[in-house]
Amino acid sequence: MAQEDVFKKLVAHCKEYGFVFQSSEIYDGLGAVYDYAQNGVELKNNIKKYWWDSMVLLHENVVGIDSAIFMHPTTWKASGHVDAFNDPLIDNKDSKKRYRADVLVEDLIQKFEEKINKEVTKAKKRFGEAFDEAQFRETNPRVLANQKKIDEVHTRFAKALNDNDLEDLRQIIVDYEIACPISGTKNWTDVRQFNLMFSTEMGSTADGAQKIYLRPETAQGIFVNYLNVQKTGRMKLPFGIAQIGKAFRNEIVARQFIFRMREFEQMEMQFFVRPGEEMKWFEYWKEARLRWHKSLGMGEEKYRYHDHEKLAHYANAATDIEFKMPFGFKEVEGIHSRTDFDLSQHQEFSGKKIQYFDPELNKSYVPYVVETSIGVDRMFLSIMAGAYNEEEVEGKDGKKETRVVLNLPPVLAPIKLAVMPLVKKDGLPEKARAIIDELKFDFNCQYDEKDSIGKRYRRQDAIGTPFCVTVDHQALEDDTVTIRYRDTMEQERVKIADLQGIIGKKVSMREAFKNL
């Protein structure tokens, strides 16, 4: 199945099974704004808890805060967002559609990469086990031709971004004949910068109102509170401050479902270190964060690093962790060495001393910062994309049927356990309810008695429930039930008293953290 079709099915699945709804859908929706439904909010909360506990519980030198969305407007002047938080945009004169120029070029590079991958796939089928992929990539004329194009575009693209050369950025689009996906034409405007911050006013009267911004990132709330946390927590360098919160960006080219939204949530940790030690900690967090992602068992081959071509104005090193989405490898988390830019800027603009006294060196200085920043919504999408699976299984009368299953990591699954009475009589519903009443303090459980047992299994597969328990007449006699495992569809007879231990071990964050 084409990856584009997989993505369409995934988006439809998210609505049909109560994960994600279009915001204000009864009013035809609001572009690039989404609501998390009953199963989606559970999965999202589990992702946030898995991140928070892995940061704050497992690191005694990392603490958390929750800063306000509204901040003093000078904050954003000091951080550089007022002057430099821009995207390069270009319009197609025929379709009247607006695009990010850098994304158009990135998509072009990805098309060349896809052509190479197709050649490799065809060769694998042709040569079988004797196929030497490395040699093929180094010698095949079509692969080399496409790789040359990638290198040429890559070099020009990186230079244009670093030089902020909007004219050459447009020229790349023209030279490689990139067409508008809507009109199919190459009739482009000039590239220009567009600031992404939402602004509003605070005050009781029009004359006394103050222009403020909805925060475009949560990091600045950590930086302006750095000294408060350090002093009240008696923190010694190195130490980190973690935060989960909403951020807002006026994305003109919002697309790909919840991958790029105007209202989104971030999980960020700023790690404060001695100047000169930032690269050591940059490498540490780069490896630690990739290990965190891989611990979820979505497949190690689905992750990769991507070093930034253009560094932000505050950074001296930056790497993305990318996940293989249905629309290609895309960023889910960024690790950045932010130097002392943010704290120095806030020190200058506020006039307040924001320094750390180092007792070992017997001097004060502005710490350097290493940041880990992960988008909750992108993480959610990567988990859903990695878990969505269609497989053929044997149905009634030996006929093949398709099973749609979300192979969610059990620790993140919205519903951990579904309890199902075989029939709606003979005391079985009461027995099933009693099991839920016992286990609901430990797990998010769901009672399900509608339809045949097979349909109920399929329904739970589709929302990613890792365990289903069927209560039959034997349960009334010996307190045993049948537990079904989602991924293997195997069934096992177990004692009701053992359910807590069986399920608890599989869905425990404690057990999952051991993989870190």
Automatic annotation (TrEMBL):
It comes from the Bacteria. CDD domains: GlyRS-like_core (cd00774), GlyRS_anticodon (cd00858). ATP binds at residues 249-251, 259-264, 331-332, 375-378. InterPro entries: aa-tRNA-synt_IIb, aa-tRNA-synth_II, aa-tRNA-synth_II/BPL/LPL, Anticodon-bd, Anticodon-bd_dom_sf, Gly-tRNA_synthase/POLG2, Gly_tRNA_ligase_bac, GlyRS-like_core. Transmembrane segments: none annotated. Signal peptide: none annotated. PROSITE patterns: AA_TRNA_LIGASE_II. Its main location: cytoplasm. It catalyses: tRNA(Gly) + glycine + ATP = glycyl-tRNA(Gly) + AMP + diphosphate. Keywords: Aminoacyl-tRNA synthetase, ATP-binding, Cytoplasm, Ligase, Nucleotide-binding, Protein biosynthesis. Substrate binds at R100, E217, F264, E265, Q266, M267, E268, E371, T372, S373, I374, G375. Residues 177-414 form the Aminoacyl-transfer RNA synthetases class-II family profile domain. It is found in: Cytoplasm. Its EC number is 6.1.1.14. One of its GO terms (molecular function) is ATP binding. One of its GO terms (biological process) is glycyl-tRNA aminoacylation. GO terms for cellular component: cytoplasm; extracellular exosome; microvesicle. Homodimer. PANTHER family: DNA POLYMERASE SUBUNIT GAMMA-2, MITOCHONDRIAL (PTHR10745:SF8), GLYCYL-TRNA SYNTHETASE/DNA POLYMERASE SUBUNIT GAMMA-2 (PTHR10745). Belongs to the class-II aminoacyl-tRNA synthetase family. Catalyzes the attachment of glycine to tRNA(Gly). This is Glycine--tRNA ligase. It comes from Carboxylicivirga sediminis. The gene is glyQS.
